[in-house]
Each structure stands twice: as structure tokens, then as C-alpha cells.
Amino acid sequence: MSINSYGHLFRVTTWGESHGPALGATVDGCPPGVALTAPMIQEWLDKRRPGQNKMTTQRQEPDAVEILSGVFEDTTTGTPIQLMIKNTDQRSKDYGDIANTFRPGHADITYHQKYGLRDYRGGGRSSARETASRVAAGGVARAAIKSLAPNVEIKGYMVQMGEKHIDRARFDWDAIDGNDFWCPDAGVVTEWTDYINWLRKDDHNSVGAMIEVVARNVPAGIGAPVYGKLDTDLSAAMMSINAVKGVEIGEGMAAASLTGRANADEIFMGKDGPEYSSNHAGGILGGISTGQDIVVRFAVKPTSSILSPRASIRMDGTPTKVITKGRHDPCVGIRAVPVGEAMMAAVILDHILLDRGQTGGVRGQIGPQT
Amino acid sequence: MSINSYGHLFRVTTWGESHGPALGATVDGCPPGVALTAPMIQEWLDKRRPGQNKMTTQRQEPDAVEILSGVFEDTTTGTPIQLMIKNTDQRSKDYGDIANTFRPGHADITYHQKYGLRDYRGGGRSSARETASRVAAGGVARAAIKSLAPNVEIKGYMVQMGEKHIDRARFDWDAIDGNDFWCPDAGVVTEWTDYINWLRKDDHNSVGAMIEVVARNVPAGIGAPVYGKLDTDLSAAMMSINAVKGVEIGEGMAAASLTGRANADEIFMGKDGPEYSSNHAGGILGGISTGQDIVVRFAVKPTSSILSPRASIRMDGTPTKVITKGRHDPCVGIRAVPVGEAMMAAVILDHILLDRGQTGGVRGQIGPQT
Amino acid sequence: MSINSYGHLFRVTTWGESHGPALGATVDGCPPGVALTAPMIQEWLDKRRPGQNKMTTQRQEPDAVEILSGVFEDTTTGTPIQLMIKNTDQRSKDYGDIANTFRPGHADITYHQKYGLRDYRGGGRSSARETASRVAAGGVARAAIKSLAPNVEIKGYMVQMGEKHIDRARFDWDAIDGNDFWCPDAGVVTEWTDYINWLRKDDHNSVGAMIEVVARNVPAGIGAPVYGKLDTDLSAAMMSINAVKGVEIGEGMAAASLTGRANADEIFMGKDGPEYSSNHAGGILGGISTGQDIVVRFAVKPTSSILSPRASIRMDGTPTKVITKGRHDPCVGIRAVPVGEAMMAAVILDHILLDRGQTGGVRGQIGPQT
Amino acid sequence: MSINSYGHLFRVTTWGESHGPALGATVDGCPPGVALTAPMIQEWLDKRRPGQNKMTTQRQEPDAVEILSGVFEDTTTGTPIQLMIKNTDQRSKDYGDIANTFRPGHADITYHQKYGLRDYRGGGRSSARETASRVAAGGVARAAIKSLAPNVEIKGYMVQMGEKHIDRARFDWDAIDGNDFWCPDAGVVTEWTDYINWLRKDDHNSVGAMIEVVARNVPAGIGAPVYGKLDTDLSAAMMSINAVKGVEIGEGMAAASLTGRANADEIFMGKDGPEYSSNHAGGILGGISTGQDIVVRFAVKPTSSILSPRASIRMDGTPTKVITKGRHDPCVGIRAVPVGEAMMAAVILDHILLDRGQTGGVRGQIGPQT
Fold first, then answer.
1. Per-residue pLDDT tens digits for A296-307
2. CB nearest to B363's CB, from D221, D364, D366
3. Going by fewer Cβ within 10 Å, which terminus of chain C is more open, N or C?
4. What value of ipTM does the predicted structure carry?
5. Which residues are listed for NADP(+) binding in this entry (chains A, B, C, D) (predicted)?
6. Helices B230-239 and A230-239 meet at what angle, rounded to 10?
7. Average pLDDT over residues A229-247
């Protein structure tokens, strides 16, 4: 049991601190024979990278991934894949009072209370930088899915920033990659941009966000009741991301308001199998996929790293005021989009493997080719 | 890896189907030396039992728990505790078309798609009856918590039924046990009672609910980042309960709407340790407990087992209409209250054990008593 | 992580004490669609049962297994299988000094030292009676293997009792079931019978044994390096059996004495695949099966429960002499034969599942049969 | 579940291939507050390093370990520790026929049969080079043991090489570090040296070995029955090492030959607790430590990489002869000594943690120092 790992058969262990020499992911359980190169993973890391767009922190790091093991001649061998990302922008600086002060809303205080000590440089292990490891591992998951279930598509996007919501009537799948918010409603982009600039420059504030991740064309029958349900694993996967405070599937929290008749997804026979009148279930029944779109949403809280002073204490219990200077995103939810996609990919692959095993029964042939 | 298990060190495996001979929970990892008897567990099972109040299904079963192992002279020995509940109300009946028909909103269809066969009697393994096993295991967790962290209190209650919400201004901890809804606002009970009776008798419908579970006096420093965070594990625990579609911690989904200043829990030094100006975090920072109340909410969808006909198909693909007759709760959320409490207890105990181990270093003495 | 469980995907948790109400096994991960009935499991339990032959303890229990879950219409459903064996021969008796005395060579003293208390009745959880749970679970494994890899044969037998060895030149597979020792050399049976009778009646002593278990026709390619190697898992499986002190694969401990030339298994191409000049490897290379016979041996120590007095102490540290009266086998190794077979079956199935998954990709069809 | 990991709470995942860019170990579950530096780990790696003495392969690599995470200011933080060893001696060479030929006694053929492809350079993942990762992780375990149970001493040594045994009467603990065989009997060193030189140069052969590892001063009460027994875990740990074919505890395989009276370890009360007349049990009863020396032995087969030709086949099934040229140890057992020590350290620490948890309940203080 590794507490820094997730997944049943596709097992990922992330390691590394914000300001240590490197961070990465140890990926065990990837099937053999999957085409995999560093650039294939880099593509997803680049999407998450700070400094990628104007909305996110100014920390400039290439976040270049290296594959140290498990891949031979651009093909996975079925052995552990070690992914390493060197930390190159560890600014040498005076950490001043940070080592002895607890930032409100940060894990500073609880790490201290649990472990009796902490790596205070940039949040150490509790830094959002840990999510780079997840995105790298998600890149491996995507490559394996491409090999095993090529029709599956996974896509995340932002549906709410603070009190500003998208208009679902203008939802456009193709708009997502065209703006800095990964927002499917191009009509809100200007307003959101103005708002986030004001937050950072004038209000010295931050804001929360709601992310939705969808997996299309996942075959029916994936998921493992009762404690490895697809929704259970997705919920844990998303809630484990820094700053996430809530997760919902399909109708989600709104299901509490509905009646049974309103919530029913009626079933019809289509030409390729069962079809449904609606998707309140979010593509999952009894923890197993129905074949419909799998729909997950999660809420990201506003970062507590803001330029406005807040009351706190030092390790010795004396009071202080904390202002968080430096490179911080006004809306960390933006970068949570590729992270949510990566976690979705890992969970989907994991459940495909539970059903078909690591090798799927394929074996190397010996003897004359037939 | 057992897919029917939860917990890291306090490891519970539930087993059994709705209409098989029995169901139960295999509980491994309970520390030795904990006072435990069947009546201590029965107390919690009685709270969940169908037929317990007028709001829930009329299925009448005593749900009497037997302890088959792991307890000697009313004390746990540190070995696996087997809890068994016999199914006594397996009405012999004609299952008619059920074996060949998929009920909309049920796991019938996905179990068939995954396994190629299913125990169709009463939903088999996917029945809400599985939650009796959780409540029994939760009784063991409560007993162990009582021994290791006696100040901890765990309490669940309903805060919303359909579109009807409690008035938080009237929140009364002591009201919870005084009504059939485990509702902390006595002022809504009459209205809710009328509504649910109308739903069942006249509208032939069901309704969703929102449950909140709170753990008080959990010591600071409990939780295991990054993939065994307290909130991650609570999220998985609640999402694994039948019919749950969303889970949130503290501010939850509403955190998406807030700014960093609004969401800040400022820190002050109290006489017994750090105190906070508010609890937006729900008692958890970086996956570790702060010492504040741990607050979880989850949404329970309306049951799809209603007397109103809905479109569906048979195994051969032909269309049909389904009406679910028989013993069904109009609001399954009511019975989810003790289940949510049980899952909270299991998660809290599990994390206490991760920190202090199974025996906590206590050892039997040999030699003259000193 | 359950410490009372074994297996990666075929996950067995045993529970129960020697003199509690019942004991059994919770079996998770058995594939769906396997034919399984209680009599199919009972067959193997009967082989292990005390009182089955003259050589073993006189404790008379039917050891009747009940299937409480996971099987519907004599077919596994893919959900947890609960196997229960009631303890019927819990003689009510005066345990006298046993509760306060440590028997030399027993786990009495270490359970006390670890847990601070113990169920002293018949050894509690540390009793060899726990192995009945393994044999029951092994019955499930055998049924699943029969379904997935029908050519596999698993057979255990005794090759040494004390200083008496079989003559390998007289090895006869068919002789094994024909004597009370599961011995493949019929020529030693009379001598062994006389010896064990003398041990029990005259010498008040016990004796160790060596068991060999072979799995034939296991397909090549099974096993999961590096820490789930087939030999690693077999080693753990056998060493976890009560009284086992050593485990070896193929050439085993004797490999230390050999040179590389002597130990080489040369490879030739046969008509159905690779063939080998010998099987020093015991059917495993790099933790993966070669397709040859998988050969495991394990040593069972002589039981310390003998009628001869040995020095010991009481809980208060005062000296005492211990004589173990009652029902005890002079050679517990005999009953270890079916236990070893059961563990072999569980490991083999587990690794087949790691390769092909729980459902192997098979899915239930919906729509007109084609 | 990661198949490339071992340990319950002290969880080590090894990664890397013989000729890839690097290999290493991801170590999760090390308690916080342990003094740890790279040189502390390097000390043990140097002991294992090829080229360290004349007896082992001439491959010359510094095997310099880097700590990439989990350590801050030379102290563990309780987060994952990433250990990396770069491969510096990856001779660029023509692998010739190796990619298409299976070496007898190697995992070449089974990796191919399982995965359908393999990294054939130097054995890839199946290379003994993987054990460097174990030794590095063992260095972390030793550091943590030093902090939690400072009296524990762990020592391995060779007791047999081929048919040559040490004389137990000359056993000298202090002689072990004084010769190239880690042999406790200085009297055999000259003979063994001559023998191994002859094997390599003249006989073009290799030879097996028997290694013994002892842990002294392990407190009584460590171990977790029934499937996490100390002997079970030690057995798996040792059997997972390349080329190991058998493992035994205490009396081991010889226990099969003994009677109950001969095998009895009688108990007496000493001034610091129970004492025993002998240690046939090898320090473990019922899977739990007695406080006596824990004694494990394992047999290492002779390497199949020898200069003598052996029959084999190519991937296309055609026959060939294989001679293994290059850098290979005539007795790989020598280098297994530090590997066995490392595995012993990991298992002992793991079980200490199961009893006392990751933090042992220690918490960081906030407020005025008292």
C-alpha cells in the first residue's frame, strides 16, 4: 500500500517537491506493446505548464519530461515507466519568515502538525506542482487507451469561473482549445479575461472554478463494484487534486432536488446496442459504464495565495499577517483542466485493464511465423 | 487488491446479495483490546433498518448481526472480525419478467454487460441492502474510535429532500434523533412528512436528498497525502454508496463561486492550539485534518424504483415498460444517513491507524507485574 | 491492505479461530460464469479433514462448507464468494493453566507479546485449523482454473517424513491417493505407518515432513516480475502455512551446490513449442512460467504439541513444564498436502487473471442472438 | 497494486533496466524525521557494486545514488523518496544475435512469451542490476531502523559456495568484512579464491551459493499473521531476488528431518524477558518475532551466463549454441549478500511500522515551547 499512489492495475506513484531537484511519476502496469515517446507525453505537459498563457503564474519552466525506464525502441515493455521532470526554476531566494509562518488556507499548518517538520520551499510536496506528475502519467494512460480502445476521447473544460457561468446553449466542443480558459463558450472569453486581469492587478484576489471532464465512447461494462466503482474511483481521483472541494457525476448534487420520474434515463434499443433518452446518470450505473458519455465535474477553490493580508500565526503561536507574494495564478482552476483529463484517462485505462488484464492474453510466438 | 474492500489499514470487505442466504462484512485491521459486542453493532444497524420508520420500505427484517470471529471475551483480538447478517425476508415469489428486463436507472443492464450474467433477485449485489454490511463495519470502527480517540463524535443528518431545504438558522443538533428524517430542523418535519406520503401514494414517485455528515474533535494531523488524503478517502467512501451522485467537503461546489478573500479561514492562537475564523475548508487542508469539524455532504439520487411506467428493453432488445412494484423507499436518502456515518467512522479510524499503527507499540508483559 | 489476505486479483481473506462459532474465507475476484457448488469445494475439504485417516488428529468435525454469497444458480457472478465452515466440535472443557502458560514452539507467547491478549482456546487464530479456510478457497480456485485453463493439473504429495525419504525411482503418480500419507512411493507405506504409530504411542513424539506440489500444463508466460514473480508468490503462499520453515523451487537449496553447466536447462524446439533438456528451474525463469512442470517443495516442522514435558514459563514469568494432551497429529505434514495444493491453485489462478483480467473482455450481449 | 513493489507500509517500487538511462527505487512510507543523506545510502551500494572485488564482474560503474525527493535538510519529510542511479557503463556494442536468441537459464524466453517483446540489452529488467535499486532502498530502511530501533543489527554472509561449506566451529562475526566473499570463516578464503579463479579462467563455469542473513535485537512482537507473517514476507523478499531458488528460516528444510523433542526451543525467564534454550525457530513463532536472532538462508543458483556452449533456439525456432561472453560473475551469490541484507532491513522496518504507524503519533507542536 503506497499512499502516494493511485490505480488498481495501472498504478501511478507521484514523487517530488516543488523546489527539489526533480519530480515525476513511477508508472507500473502499463501494458506492453504500446507506442510511447517523450514528445507524446510532453504534449499534455505543455498544456498544463505555468506561463503557457497569460492567465497563469509567471513561473517559467520547460517541464521537460524524460522517460528513464520501461520503454524500448519507442514501445512499452510492460515494466515500470519512470517519468522525470527536472525543476529548473528553483529561484534561489530568502524564504524569510515562510519557514515559521503558516499561510491561511495552505497545508503548511497541517503538514507541520502531522509530520513535525516540512519542506517549506514553495509548498514542498503540497504544491500544485505535484500535478505535473499526474499529467505526465496521464500521457502514458492516453497512449495505452489509444492502443486498446482507440475510439475513446477525453476532454476537459471550464464551465464556471467564480460566479460567471458558461451558457450551455452556446456550448462548442471545438471552441475549447481556442482560448486561454479551455472554455467551450467563446462568448464569455472577453468578459472572463477582463475579470481575471482585474482580480490579479486591482483586487489582489483569486477566484474559484468549475471544471467538467467528459469521456466519450467508453465501452459499456467498465467498472468494478462495489468499492472500485467507476464513479468512486473518479471521485477519489478528482478530489485528490490540490484545491478540489467537490466532485459530481452526471446530474450530481442537483440529483438531490429531482424526483424519480424526472431523473429517469429511459432505455431504447439502438442499432449498435442500448440507447438512452437522457444521461442524468453521467454514463455510470451501479459503478459500471453504460456506454454513454462519462461526465464528471469538480470544484476548484480560489487559491489562498493572494496579495491581500490575512491573519495567521507563527510556529511559536504569535500572531502575524500573511501576504503571499510571488508567482501565483489568480484562478488555479485553469490549470486543473489538463489535470482532470489526466486523472480521467488513468481511471478509464485502469478499469479497462481490470477487465482484460495486463497482456490481454497476447503472447509472444516462438517458431516459424504462420 | 480486493475490489470489494475499502480502507488502508482498517480494511473492510463486504459480501452478500440481497436475496442470498446472508450478507456481511469481513473486517481486518481492527486494533486488539477494543471492547466489542454484537449489541454495540446492532444499535447502528437498527438505525438503518428498513421498516424502522414509516418513511422507508416495508421490508421487515431484524437484520440481526452475529460476530463469527475476531472477538474473545467481548474484546477484539487483532484478528479478522467476521460480521454476518442473515437474510430472513427472502419472499419466495415469481420474479416474472425481471430476469430478462432492465430497469431504467438500475445496475441491471450494466451488470449484465460486464459479467454476462447477474443475480436478478432484488438487485443482487447492487442492492442497497449491501449498505447493511457497511453499517455493521462502521459499528466496529466506532468501537475502536471510542477506545483510541474517545472525544470524536460522528453525526449525519438530512439537510435537503428534493427541492425542500432545511433552515440553517433553526439547526438543532438535538433535533436529529427526534424525527423520521434525521433532520436537524424540526420545523420542516410536518411538511416533509406530508410530501413524502403524497409522493408514494399519489404521485407514485420518489425524490432525492442531501445528507451531511460531521466529525467533531478529530485531532489535527490525521490524513495521508497525496492519494490517501482525508478528503479523497471520504469522497470515495461516500461516492461508493448506492445512488450517491456527488460529494463535497466544507464549502464544496460553492467554492467555485468564491474569491480567495471570501474563502479564507484566518488563523488565530487559541488556548488549546490554533483556531480559525471560519471553516470553509471543512476541517481539511492538504488532505490533513485541522482539528476543526470535518464536514462532508453527499447527494442521493431519487430511486428509480417507482410505480410509474418507464420505457426500457428486454435482453433480446425488444421494448417494454417497467413499473417497479414492491417494497421501495420513496426517499432512499433517509437510510443513507447511518450509512454515511458508518463510512465517516471507517475513514477516520483508518487514518488514525495509519499514524499510530495497529498496536500503537503496546505489548503484552511477561514476568512479575510492576 | 488486509494482512489476513493473499492474492493480487484472486484475493482471499481468511477469518476465524479454532474454537469460535465458525471460520471461513472471503474470496474476491473470482471471474463470473464459473460452475461452482458446495460439493465441489467439499471434496477438497474432506481430503484435509482431521479424522480422515488414522494418522491425523482424532478431532471429528464434518467441516461442511456453506456458500453464502457470490454464486447464483450454481454459477459464480463475479461478486465476493463467502465460504463458511461452522465449528461443531468445540469441546466444552477446562482450559486449566493454558491461558496463563506458553507452550514451547507455539505462537502463544508471540501473540501475547504482540497483541497483549489472545484467544487461547485451541490456539485461536494461530491454529492449523485456519488452513481449512485455505483449502475451501483453493476449491474455488480449482473451479475457476478448470474453466479458464482446463489442462492444468495440481497435485501434492509427501516425499519425506523425518529421516525417511521416498525412493524417487519408485515414484508413482497413481499411488498418491492410495495411502494415508499421500505418498507417491507405495514401497515405504508400511514402514512409515509403523514409525508414526510408534512415535505417537511409545515415543510421545512428533516428526517433520517434506511436501512437494506440482502444477502441470501451466501455460508459458504466467507470472509478474519483479515482486509478483510466480516463485515469489508461491514461496510466500507456502511459507504462510502453519509450521512451514522452508520453501524451494525446482532444484531449490541444492542449486547452491551446483555449477552453471550442471544446472543448465538446454532449450530445443518441440512440435508444440520450446522444450527443455531438464527442469532444474522448476518451471519458472525470471518469475515467469516456462510451460514445464512447476515444482515446489516445503518443509513442515514437527508439531510442538507432544506428550513429552518441556520447560516453559507462565505469564508471570514463573517456570513450568508443559505436556500437550489432547488431539494432535504426530505428523502435521500429512494434512499440509491438500493445503499446499490449495495455495498452488490460488497462485496459479491469480496469475492467469493478472494476464487476462477478471472478465477477459467477455461481455453480456443485448439484442437478438446472432 | 503495483507488481514492481514490495512492502506493506514501507513500500518500495523499483524501476529501470540494465542498459537504460537510469534505474532506481521509489520509496514511500518512510517515517518523517529520519536523518538521511546520499552517502549513507552509497555505503551499502558500494558493498554490492560490481568490480568491487576480484570475484565479481568487471563492469565498472560508480553506481552513484542521487536523492531526488522526500529529504529536506538531510532529514526525511514523510513524503516519497526517489532514488536514482544513472547507468554510466552502457557499452555501445553490437548485440548481434542476442535479440533473437534465448539464453538457457535466462528470462529471455519467458519475457518474450509473456510480453511479446523484451529489452534484450543486458537482460533489461530481468538483469541482476535491478538489485542495485533494492540495496539503495535498503539504505533508507537501515536509516529508519537506526532511528526507531537503534539496537537492531542486520548482517549477511556466505556460508556455502558450490559444494564447499564453512566450518561453523570457526564462525567469526568479525571476519565477514575482511574477505571478498563476506565469509565468516577466514579459514576457507584461500581455497574458495583458488576455486573461483579456476572456475572462471579454466573451467568456464559458474557456481551456486548459500547466503545467511541475521537480524539481531529485533524486539519481540513484530510480524502480522496470517498472510503478513514475518517469515512469509522474508521468504517472498528473498525469493524475489534474481537467481534465488530456495529460502529457509531457522532450522529450515532440515526441520523435515527432526522430531518434536529435538526441535523444541524451551522457554526460561531471563532478567530482561523470556529466553530460549535454542533457536530452531529462527526467531519467529506464528509469524511474529520472539526477540531471538532472526535467521534466514537462501540458495543462489549458478549463473547461466558462462563461456561454455549450451544448446538453445532462436525466436524462429531454429537451433543454436549459446556462449555468454562479457562481464559476468562466476558466483553471483557474492553480490547477493548486500541484497539479502537490504531485503531483511526493508521487511523489519515494514513490520515495525505496521505496529507503530508512520508517525507513531508524534505531532508538530504549535505555540510557546514548553
1. 999 999 998 888
2. D221
3. C
4. 0.96
5. 48, 54
6. 160
7. 98
